[in-house]
Amino acid sequence: MGYDTMNKKTNVKMDQVMIKKKKRNKKAVATIKAYLFLAPFLLLFATMVIYPIALGVKLSLYGQRGARMWYIGFQNFATILQDPKFWESLRIPLFLLLVQVPLMIFIATLIAFSYERLEKHGGSIFRFIYYLPYTIPGIVTGIIWSYIFSDGMSPFRPVLDLLGYSGTKILTRPHLPAILLVIILWAFTGYTAFVIYSALISIPKEFSEQAQLDGATFWQVAFKIKVPLLKGVFIPLFIFNAIGAIQVFNEPWMLKELVVLPSNYTPAMYIYNAAFAQGRFTYASAMGMILAVLTFLISFGVLRSAAKQMLTE
User: Fold this and answer.
1) Counting C-beta atoms within 10 Å of the first and last residue's C-beta, which end of the chain has fewer, N or C?
2) Do 16 and 99 share a structural domain?
3) Is residue 136 domain-shared with residue 218, that is, in the same domain?
4) End-of-domain residue from the set 242, 263, 284
């Protein structure tokens, strides 16, 4: 009996070992399948994202004169920190970050609530109309608005002539920040409203129905009940739009054909001109790294403050 008992225990242990081996093999096979499934994306991500970033970091550590390059360490970064043109180029992104981003999210929120209210009265048509500008490529958007604000072909020219402003230029450099504000709002507000609306329709109807039974109006329910529930959507929208504001390039680049702009009107324009107009690729790479760090710090700051606020609530 003792011998049989020992054999049984041994067999049980062997079975357990075999079962564990089979489980490990299954996990290994599943892991291999997962990596094979992800391989096309990982290859593309490494080629189109990781490699350019690594190459940019490498170039930023070199000096350049023509095709000749030599290692200089962090000297490019030290020069940029003392470059007034780079820091002046941040004025337009700062203006867009403080004015355009909050204003667009506010307007998009109003439009999203209008979608909800007009759902039974052609809401899908309104969503399509407001979303349509986002589908137009940035270069085409710049061309369209360049035509609108051109002195010779603008559709506003007859109206200005009629009002006695026949010799007045439509687009001037002092007015350009406001023009950029209009263009970016036109292009991206519809998309932002669509994202907010997608989150809005996921809110359970019980919240609004109970408030309406208590006598609350549609807009009271919207701003006092639903808006606080949309904080999880507002935060990434603010971050993504802040990144777009810091990297703004297409709109001022297209409008520079109508108004003379300095090479450092925005950071992206300054980096582009340094690289392709002046041939200072290593210096431009260093500026790109600094701009990326600034973008990360702003995004991290927003996320951290939002997380603290959610924890206190």
Assistant:
1) N
2) no
3) yes
4) 263
| pLDDT tens digits for range 183-242 | 999 999 999 999 999 888 888 877 777 777 777 787 888 888 888 888 888 988 999 999
- Within this chain, do residues 26 and 138 fall inside the same structural domain, yes or no? no
Looking at residue 304, its amino acid is: R
Contacts of 171 (CB under 8 A, 6+ apart): 149, 150, 151, 179, 255, 258, 259
Q: Residue 32: enclosing H or E segment and its boundaries?
A: helix 2-45
Within a domain: 301:
no
pTM, to two decimals: 0.80
pLDDT digits (tens, 9 = 90+) for 112-132: 888 877 776 767 788 888 888
Which residue in the block uniquely carries the two structure tokens 């242990």?
Answer: 13
Distance of CA 172 to the CA centre of its chain: 28
Structure tokens at 172: 């001037």
What is the secondary structure of 58-124 as a DSSP string? HHHTEEEETTEEEE-TTHHHHHHHT-HHHHHTTHHHHHIIIIIHHHHHHHHHHHHHHHHHTTTTTHH
